[in-house]
Automatic annotation (TrEMBL):
Keywords: DNA-binding, Phosphoprotein, Transcription, Transcription regulation. PROSITE patterns: HTH_LUXR_1 (PS00622), HTH_LUXR_2 (PS50043), RESPONSE_REGULATORY (PS50110). One of its GO terms (molecular function) is DNA binding. PANTHER family: TRANSCRIPTIONAL REGULATORY PROTEIN NARL-RELATED, TWO-COMPONENT RESPONSE REGULATOR. Pfam families: GerE, Response_reg. It comes from the Bacteria. Residues 150-215 form the HTH luxR-type domain. The keyword Nucleotide-binding does not apply. The modification 4-aspartylphosphate is found at residue 59. This is Two component transcriptional regulator, LuxR family. Coiled coil: none annotated. Residues 8-124 form the Response regulatory domain. One of its GO terms (biological process) is regulation of DNA-templated transcription.
Length: 219
């Protein structure tokens, strides 16, 4: 609770059933109340400006703007706002990008019924949260790479490039992507070229498969 009142939560996920379930989990506790719901990242950013909230809980993979982009925007406008990221995937890139975006925790949807409430309470207290299996997964992956003699890159794509991939996979044109991300069309085209080169890919179809495989886009 904040000041004796329930913590006011902004909940963002593009699946209404998932939002309903998460809301039930949170509002089964007396110290939380969901005061706003968003179905995509752009709506979440807009609601964060319009509604008084004490905590934002954002899905990583959402239409229009990713949860990572939304988290960065919210952190820039309200640095003191605690943010938790939700994900279906044990993905180290998204985990580290979430921290860089200003999130204080990363919760898997598959164990949200166990971890979400404690993660939210920790975030409100200013404490970071990462579920134990994530640490195990990250350590195992790094050890496997080291054992194979492979380099351990910080990340494959930048956060902005990941957003561009997601929007391309959703069928957005370069002009639409530019408007959503508030960048020029030329910058979008430059990102597209860099992405294709980095991933050794040729077209939208391959980028869409990559977006689904890495959790940027849900199949």
């Amino acid at each position: 609770m904040t000041g004796g009142q329930p913590t006011r939560v902004l909940l963002a996920d593009d699946h209404a059933l998932v939002r309903r379930g998460l809301r039930l989990i949170l509002e089964s506790e007396p110290d939380f109340t969901v005061v706003a719901e968003a179905g995509d990242g752009a709506q979440a950013v807009a609601l964060a400006r319009e509604v008084e909230v004490d905590l934002a809980v954002l899905d990583v993979a959402m239409p229009r703007l990713t949860g990572l982009h939304a988290a960065r925007e919210m952190s820039r406008r309200s640095p003191a706002l605690p943010i938790l990221m939700l994900s279906m995937y044990d993905n180290e890139q998204y985990f580290f990008e979430a921290l860089k975006a200003g999130a204080s925790g990363y919760v898997l949807k598959s164990v949200a019924d166990q971890d979400l409430v404690s993660a939210c309470r920790g975030a409100v207290r200013g404490e970071p949260f990462i579920y134990p299996d994530a640490l195990t997964t990250l350590m195992r992956e790094h050890l496997h790479r080291a054992g194979r003699g492979e380099p351990v890159p910080e990340r494959v794509l930048t956060a902005r490039e990941a957003e561009v991939v997601k929007l391309i996979a959703e069928g957005c044109s370069s002009r639409e992507i530019a408007a959503l991300l508030v960048i020029s069309t030329k910058t979008v085209e430059r990102h597209r070229a860099n992405i294709l080169q980095k991933l050794d890919m040729r077209d939208r179809t391959q980028l869409t498969r990559y977006a689904i495989r890495t959790g940027l886009l849900e199949a």
